[in-house]
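To: structure desk
From: M.T.
Subject: fold request, one chain
Message: Could you run this one when you get a chance? Sequence is below, nothing fancy, just the single chain.
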Amino acid sequence: MFYSSLMNCLMVAALSAVLGDSINHAAELGLSESGVTSLTNGDVVYERVTRHFVEMTRGDTTVIIVDNSAIDVPNLPDHRAGYNGVASLKHKSRNSNFFVPAISGLNFEHIHDGTTAGLKEKFEPRKFPMQIRRVNEFTVELYQPPTGNWKLESCGRYELLTDGTIEYTFECVPRENYYAKGFIGLFWASYIDKATDKAIHFRAREVGTSGPARWVKAITPKHGVHSTHPPADFRHDIEIDKTFPLTLVGNRSKYEHVDAWYYGVSESMAFALMFRQRDQIWMAQSPSGGGEGNPAWDFQWFIPNPQIGKLYGFTMRAAYLPFENQSQVERATRKHRDALQKK
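Reply: Done. C-alpha cells follow.
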C-alpha cells in the first residue's frame, strides 16, 4: 500500500514537472496560454456534449459552435462534415447567417510545415475526431486528440463575452516533431456568405519601407495571389515550398500590418478580427475561398522551433456589429483590442 501511494505521488510530481517545463518554455516565447483550456488546466469543469453542436446567445449575438461532423438541424441545415468552429453567426440587426451556411467561420483548417512532402493531408483538423466540451452557458471548447499525421493535440475555446464578442483561445501540444522547416504552421478560415464587399481593412505599410502606416483596403485578384499579410515586426524566417499547394499560406502581399487587427464589411455589418501583438498573427484572405462570391477572411499562426510535449497558444477576439464607418468600428473594438494586449 505504501509503495503504491509513493509511486502515485512520484508520477504526479513528474507530470507536474513536465507541465511546468512546458508552460515555462512557451512563456519564454510569448506564446503561452497556460491553464486556460481543459487541455492544460485540470481544474476546468466541463460537460461532454454528445450532439455535434451547441447554440449560445449573449448580447445581440447568437452563434452555433460545431465539431467537424455533418449536421442537419432546423437552425443549421445541411452543414458539411469537416468544417468546425462557428457554423452560424447572427446578430439582432441581421438575422441571416454571416458565414456560408454549409461551412464555418473561425474554422481550424490546416496543420503544415511549409513542405509539399510533409502535407499528407491538406485539411488535417477536418479529418480526425473532435469533442465538444461545454464549460458554461457562454463557453464551449473543441478538443482534438493528437491528429493522425502531425500528432498535434489541441483545444480551442469559444467564449461569448457580455457584449456578444467572441473570445477564442487556442492551445496545442505537439506529440511528435516531423516539421522539416523548423516551424508549425496553423491556419484558420472564415467564409463570408455572399459578401457585398470582399475587401478587408487594416493599417499597414509596404514591405521594405519605414514610412508611416496607413489604412489599406486589401482585396486579392484571385485565390492564392497576394493572399497573406505578415506583421511588420515578425521575428522569424518562414520558408514555404514553391510547390506548396495551400496557396493562401505563403503568397505574401506587398503589405505588412502594424496593428494586430482587421475588419471586413458586408450588408451593413462589420466583422472584426483582433489579435495580440505578441502572437504575431498573419492576416490572410481570398476573394473566393468559400465559393464564388464568398470571400475567405482568414488568419495564420506559426510556432517556431516546436518541441515535443511543449505548450503553445494564442488568444484573439472576433466582433460582429452594425457598420457605420471606419471610426465607429475603431471605437467599438478599442476596449477589446486594449484588453487583448494586457492578456
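Reply (cont.): The longest helix spans residues 2-29. Let me know if you need anything else for the meeting.
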